[in-house]
Known about the structure:
The chain is of the alpha/beta class. It has a single domain (12-213), classed as Rossmann fold (3-Layer(aba) Sandwich). 56% of the residues lie in helices and 9% in strands. It has helices spanning 30-58, 77-97, 113-116, 124-130, 133-138, 141-156, 163-174, 187-198, 201-213; strands at residues 12-15, 61-65, 103-109, 181-184. The chain is globular. The termini are far apart. This is BDH protein. Keywords: Membrane, Transmembrane, Transmembrane helix. Belongs to the short-chain dehydrogenases/reductases (SDR) family. It comes from Quiscalus mexicanus.
Amino acid sequence: LLSHFSSTGFWGLVNNAGISTFGETGWLPMETYEKFADVNLLGSIRTTLAFLPLLRKYKGRIVFMSSIIAYFTLGNGIYSMTKAAIEKFCDALRLEMKKFGVQVCIIQPGNYARSTKIQPPLSAEEIWSELSEEEKAVYNKEYVQERANFFNSILSEGSTNGNEVVDAMVDALMSPAPKARYMVAKLKEKALVLVCALFPTAVMDSVLSYALSK
């Protein structure tokens, strides 16, 4: 790899790849969990390991795309799971890289679904058709329709100002003193994270249950 870079060296790696989907835990087959772990978590780890020798050599930066959804979930637990895992990977990596002068930064966007198109709207019919017979026996189409409407409404509220996230990525790469975490989110989203961090789990569960019931 070294022969492909100039004397200025390999400075920055941005792990941005990610996929998202909606669905309650039992609605998704094991193959989907494996695919998400492979892309969202192991994909970033593979890239990091491949470039680690260069990043150590040139005292570079590694930036990871996480999400505020690492702290809580509203219908997309599979995505939350991978983002929470990448956060912990980064926490270990950041401490280990200090001695080499390599800085590790995490970007935590709020809802930018309309900017990224990471998650297309899902129809209740589409979800229902993919359910196993066991899940169809537990849930009904009306419930699936309610969940789909709820999740699609969240997607429609996403910010279109994707440049805010890009600005955070640039700062993480170029700032003389980058932050360990850049939370780029609306006040309401930051408040949810605060409740999740400071209050007992039962309180956060009540808040999210209330939101889901609306």
